Prior knowledge:
two-stranded antiparallel sheet, alpha+beta
Amino acid sequence: MQTKEYYENIIKECFSKTDFAKKLGFNYYNGRASRFVSKIIEENNLSITHFDGGNSKKIKYPIIIKKCPVCEKEFEAQFGSKREKQTCSYGCANKLFRSGENNGMWKNDTSAHYTKICFRYHEKKCIICEEDKIVAVHHFDHNHENNDPKNLVPLCLTHHSYIHSKHKDLIIEKVNAYVNNFRGIA
């Protein structure tokens, strides 16, 4: 059993009963923890006026004013929180993170245009089955940075899957012959 002063020092630093329970060692704020915390507060006559709605309400993260990088409006955000707001709205967040360099899938090189490069030099049809409706582009040396037309091979989705599977041996001879012919190697 701890002293009243011990609990008073802890509760001063807390902003809710949940926070108080965590500082007392409870991992989860469930019914048992809630009853225990309420009992400690009642038995030791602890002040919780700084909790929800009190005059000196404590905030875990201070509120700051930020400028939206998209529309330049000012907005409030909680400084230091794990999910600190970066923009003023969902719309601005979509503009910032779903396009351009802030998008995790964005590439600042010409690799996205390898299909255009391929079909400028190769006929748009699978070299194995001559499918011409849905044609993928295979990087012969498996280096996606190498977009030289001599490295790009048009294949239908099925045969492109073959080349990256255990069934590679069924089509590899035709692919090698096509690449060698395109490169001018007899």
